[in-house]
């Protein structure tokens, strides 16, 4: 009788590889959100919006505290919006931003998946 | 009697600017952690480590699941270690990584500051 034999090439290494909890698409989604959060200016912008009256802020109020032009701030806000972290509402001349409901909780929840 | 008068240059805009909850150094620190998390490979690596036996993984077990060379994986692990997200322990030939205790909770807590 012959038994099948599995050759372990380097038995000293390693612990069992288990299935990761996060799949490829999920990893892409999580990374997209954290990439948006991975910039000090964007962190400060989110903090300003969160501290704003009614949890929102006009773009015109965001430029001075971060010391950047409106164009640059708009670019940062676009990245935050694309990552689903903020919502944008045009009111006449000005764009107002609010932190997207549940977005920060969802980001925190994705950390618990790791 | 003369009363002090504050001229509001553009009264249509805006809501009161409040002090952001996050200072400059805090924003830098938070962004550093999230920048490390802002890459799908690094998210997957953290997930693999978290799912590993005893909550750790040998570098030799991380290369195949992400389909990258050991050099590239080492670079990603270095960024995660620098951001305080993982700890590294050399055991003979191999480096073992574990998710740094409390690191993901701290990252989640910083989201609640925003």
From TrEMBL, chains A, B:
GO terms for molecular function: DNA binding; DNA-binding transcription factor activity. This is Arsenical resistance operon repressor. InterPro entries: ArsR-like_HTH, ArsR_HTH, HTH_ArsR_DNA-bd_dom, HTH_MetalResp_TranReg, WH-like_DNA-bd_sf, WH_DNA-bd_sf. It comes from Microbacterium azadirachtae. Signal peptide: none annotated. The keyword Ubl conjugation does not apply. Gene3D superfamilies: Winged helix-like DNA-binding domain superfamily/Winged helix DNA-binding domain (1.10.10.10). Residues 22-114 form the HTH arsR-type domain. SMART domains: HTH_ARSR. PROSITE patterns: HTH_ARSR_1, HTH_ARSR_2. SUPFAM superfamilies: Winged helix' DNA-binding domain. Keywords: DNA-binding, Transcription, Transcription regulation. It holds the Pfam family HTH_5. It comes from the Bacteria. The lineage of its organism: Bacteria, Bacillati, Actinomycetota, Actinomycetes, Micrococcales.
């Amino acid at each position: 009788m012959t038994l099948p034999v599995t050759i372990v090439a380097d038995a000293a290494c390693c612990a069992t590889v288990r299935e990761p909890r996060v799949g490829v698409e999920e990893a892409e989604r999580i990374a997209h959100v954290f990439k948006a959060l991975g910039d000090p200016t964007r962190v400060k912008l989110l903090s300003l919006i969160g501290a704003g009256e009614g949890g929102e802020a006009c773009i015109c109020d965001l430029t001075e505290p971060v010391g950047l032009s409106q164009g640059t701030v708009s670019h940062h806000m676009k990245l935050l919006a694309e990552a689903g972290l903020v919502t944008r509402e045009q009111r006449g001349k000005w764009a107002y931003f609010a932190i997207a409901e549940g977005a920060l909780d969802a980001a925190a929840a994705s950390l618990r998946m790791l």
